[in-house]
Amino acid sequence: MEPGRFLQTCLTLLILITSSCGGHMESGHAVKMDQALLTFHNQLDHEVHIVYTSDYCYKCVYQHLVSVKGSNNNASAVISTKFTLTVRVESQTRNVTVCRWSQTYEEGGHYSVWIQMSDAASNPSCIHTVDKRPNNVYLPLLVAALLLAIIALLFNVTPYIYRSRRTSKFIKTICCQVPQYSVDNDGAHADEAVKPKPTRLRSLDTFRGFALTVMVFVNYGGGGYWFFQHAPWNGLTVADLVMPWFVFIIGTSVVLAFTSVQRRGVRILQLLRKLTWRTVVLLTLGFCFLNYSPRDGPLSWSWLRIPGVLQRLAFTYFVLSLLQTFWGQKEIPLRVHHWWNPVQDVVLYWPQWLIIILLETLWLCITFLLPVPNCPTGYLGAGGIGENGLYPNCTGGAAGYIDRWMFGDNMYRYPTCKEMYHTTQPFDPEGILGTINSIVMGFLGMQAGKIIIFYKDINIHILCRFLVWAVILGISAAILSKCTRDGGFIPVNKNLWSLSYVMCLGCFSFLLLGAVYFVTDVKGWWGGQPFIYPGMNSIFVYVGHSLLGFYFPFSWEMLLQENHWEWLLQSLWGTTLWVLIAYLLYRKKFFLKI
Predict the structure, then answer these.
(1) What DSSP assignment string belongs to 528-591?
(2) Which of 102, 119, 276, 295 is the Cys-Cys partner for 86 at CB 3.0 to 4.6 Å?
(3) Looking at 24, 46, 64, 230, which residue is catalytic?
(4) CA–CA gap between residue 429 and residue 160 (Å, rounded)
(5) What is the pTM of this model?
């Protein structure tokens, strides 16, 4: 038997065994991943209509689900299990709502709703029953987490076993205490004492690699789980975290790299030439490679997407580099006491802050003051059936309007809100207006870089300032969003890269970088493996997985669509391969630099 067929057979048997507790699937009613079957039994003497809406969909118009004729007729419909649904049963003849409920249905379950007259009153009622128990949707995640934990434990234990390769030496060390056989002899300590500490921050590469690894995982589908995919509009999921983290690290890296280069006396003209070249290369990669797939046929301008992830990263890097080149030369005089010492890392760089404040003011003015045809001024919604269906063509407000005016059809056509909000307008999450806040996010990363440089070797100051920035940004995000998904002044929204989104992710970035810095660079408890390997070859891994990620052996055509097992396996397999490739390149000392 071929290895691939054997693997597929084993996977099928595993799925059948783990899902057998849910009962047997009824013929003709098979449901796929993130779906359940809902059957309505109408025991009334007249027809009823079933309508529904998702609680995640803000003020959305109810959508027709199914109609059921009277006199003991029934009808079934497949529903989504990603979010809580609000369902209404409406009487066609009486024009009233028979019953209404909200429920989160579970994947693979078969449910029945019996619409009948109540025994105690003349009003009809709806009785809910479970015909087939749902699948344990989180079992694949638990199994995967257990396996990853075991692998991580083995990787941490193996070096200690390897160091005691010869049992005889180990026994002599313990029993005989012979100095020349001691593992921890004085000579070793002497070598360690004179061994210089590495100047490269492991925490920076580890943080970058962690963000990149999660990005690869979610780009492979994240096992099909909704929280590993982008939020439909407002709100946060795991997939919404990684891009701002990456931008944050770009800002930190710009400060560290340019400060080192400028201290070596490199002229500004050389710096401008280098940063311009790097920007052009990133833009070229984004335009010519990541926006094209052989499946699209011959190269054509008609389907080319002008905005993109690498395009945004390139432009963000360009602006941040200019800020650091022209206004990033001042060093904080730690021993000089002024009344503004607590904020001296902000005051001394006031030209940079002035530019960032002007950019953010520009974003606020355009977002909330620009008139958009047939849309309310300052609209931040998804359009479509949202907001009671009043603004169907206003997806993204001013941000979407500017992008459609600038790029026409050469932008992203399948926004995350399309499925839930039934939108018809294209919307690009990497559009022009959102790039302004991407620069702001990167500038917060620059602030982290300044703290690391100017409070070098004073770790308590670095960690405390990281914590202070996290608290300030977290409180700001809470005020702007009112700690709600849709009801805030400026909701947290990845598609728009809203100000509250930048504040929220800036808070997370400072906390996460501080934690990784403490564990890797301060205490040395962790070397950053395995995330440090893709972190040191980030361009190679990102471009490689974007170009080759949907070809064998990184992925394959899935045959089992009823649950998350195969999709999670494929997502983890593809991500693991790229981490392994990054590790091999690290061993060969190959690092793709632009």
Answers:
(1) -TTTHHHHTTHHHHHHHHHHHTTSTTT-------SSSHHHHHHHHHHHHHHHHHHHHHHHTT--
(2) 102
(3) 230
(4) 47
(5) 0.86
